[in-house]
Amino acid sequence: MSTSNVSGLSKTDWLCLSFLSGIGPSRLSRLYTYLSQFDYHASMDNAENLPLFSNEELSDTSPSETITYDLLIALKWPEITARQAMDYFSNGILTKEQEAKRDESLAWLEEADHHLVLQEDEHYPKALKEISVAPAFLYVEGNRDTLALPKVGIVGARKCTRYGRDATFQFAEQLSASGVCVVSGGAMGVDTAAHQGALYNKTTPTIAVMGTGLFHRYPHHNRQMFEEILEQGGALISEYPLSTSPRPHLFPPRNRIISGLSMGVLVSEASLKSGSLISASYAIQQNREVFALPGRLIDPQSEGCHQLLRQGATLVRHVDDILAECSDLSLPSAPITKSVNITKRVKSSAAEKNTKNPLSNNRNQTAESMPVLVSNQVHALPESTSDNAKAVIAIMEQEAQPMDFDALIRHSKIDAGLMMQVLMELELFGCIENREGLYFRC
Fold this sequence. Notes:
Layout: H1 11-18, H2 25-44, H3 55-60, H4 63-66, H5 69-74, H6 79-91, H7 96-109, E1 114-118, H8 126-129, E2 137-142, E3 151-155, H9 162-177, E4 181-184, H10 190-200, E5 207-209, H11 223-231, E6 235-238, H12 251-261, E7 264-267, H13 276-285, E8 289-292, H14 303-310, E9 314-315, H15 319-325, H16 348-355, H17 360-363, H18 387-399, E10 403-404, H19 405-412, H20 416-428, E11 432-435, E12 438-441
Parallel strand pairs: 3-4, 3-7, 4-5, 5-6, 7-8, 8-9
Antiparallel strand pairs: 1-2, 2-6, 10-12, 11-12
């Protein structure tokens, strides 16, 4: 594969390094950063900031030849990893397992819409380069031009409430309609709602940052959703080797990529111990905007969001609250013009229409003309409404969240037969709406 202009190593070299024992994204990132500095100072004929080498070595040696055991140890690589790296650079030696991973990765890259994007690649997001431990490269399955879109991350609890799921879906849908790419982690709960909301109108693609290798689309329950992301011109990305299986310690580090890709991160529901707060912490470190969705005071799943709000996060009630804070969202550096197979991707004409000016579609709409998460504009009860119906509405308004049939019976003490009549009455008046068994005040 072609040689990197900056690091002096080929994509195959980087792949092989990523398979070494004891390696990880942070160690690869340190090596990439060092070699990038090497290339810069070599071109400037200045070695002051590279004390491991003399000016003569800089002028006579290519970056790939400067990688020594001592250098890798100085970059805090484990001894076993440094020895394996030198065996590879000196003699091309890999273990059988490492050779198998290399061969399967190269075969994967030969397929359509499979990419390895190095930091110097034009498709590598500029914002991601700015974070402290930027991945040396990304595996990308799907349309890599999606990486150039303006992006907002959405994270939250895996075991979210119906309120959190519906709110997340609505915000993601509105952001996508505004030309903003929604970035999330593909997990259950809030992540799933974020991707589904972004997919709903088939406008702007969405990106899933995986905590596994791309051979393992985890969780398995979302396999169909991952396919829909690809079909609609989005992308699945990962910093981990393709065959990396799900492991608990791999998921928190990927949160820095979600926030690093994004102009801001919305935490839509989180407990005090939620991993979503890790994403918020990364966002603060990376100088990104942090948004939080308020919930009920008695709801443990909202305590994390309330803590963020106390610490200065922006409270959001409407998508305009996010767009206003990220008003400097830049247009994509490379518009999505890639033609795709109609049987597996959305029509390219629709994609082009929604990416030429991604923030213009709805930016001129007023807040009143766009749907809001919590609206005071509800249908008033007609004078002829029965007392039981009024009681049910009072309960729904007091709870301030969708309720199912059983919950309404428990709160109202109305028997099931009469409750069915009451709900039918309220639906006919347009005062409530049944969505998959949950009743909403409208």
